[in-house]
Amino acid sequence: MESETSSPKALAPMHLPRTSRLILALLMAAAALAAASPASAHKQGMRLALGPVVGSASPVALRTSGVLLLEPLGGGRMSLDLRGLRTSSGAKLQAPGNLLRLALRVNGVPASYSFPFDIRDGASSLHATITPGQGLFKGDRVEVVAVDLLDQDGVRFGTIGVPPGTRTPILSSALVYVIDSTSPIRFSRGGDTRLKLRDDGNFNSGFDTLLDPTGKEITSPGVTVELQVVRNGTPQLYSYSYDIVHGRSVPDGRPVVQLGFLITDTIEVQRLDVFDDTHERFATLGLKINAPARKP
User: Quick one: which of 22, 23, 32, 46 is 20 to 30 A from 287 by CA?
Assistant: First the structure.
């Protein structure tokens, strides 16, 4: 039997030089990320760009995209950020009395909420809960039907979308299970989507943990993603299909297509839905609340 001193052992991290310990820590962190399950890599919140409405009569014009963040933690958190707003003469915009309006379905029940905000010196920010007066708890599902920005006269000037020249994503968002769907395809986490104006309208949307009603990984051909947009003022419907194999959309869990957008386009997003092979909707833009837990 070999003695303890003669048998080879890995060198403990604290015995390494400082630089080597740092390198080892970085390698271990990278390995942990690589070993994470595919579902954990999928987004659980929503980052939505806010862009102009083509043909709007409002004096408020979004020439740079705003950002709306929806988070599943803390009962559902929301933040709005608008910057770089200027008048046609180039002065920083002053516009009081605006509204952010959210049309939602909360656990399948339609709901609408409005949040007042002012624009001062060309900027505005807003922090609130997604559903003020209605608590959200772990497991609740929030479908985002529409997002609109209204000026003080009630004229719609902004929505999910981007103005020309935007380099950041139009949306980078979780997908949520449609609670009243009759589709045999089920999921709790693991769906997300990203849409860009640049990269020829790069659009990817998919899942890696799709289940049947018994909780087993499902195989189902002919899933269809539908994206309804208004492109430069003209409504357009884009769709593409993929198969689900052992609970995962193929290829790679996140099929990718290019929609042919130009960097000079103005895009408004009206809806994004996912259907099974019988055209039953089972997923849409939204999020599942992670916390807090409902008190007994």
Answer: 32
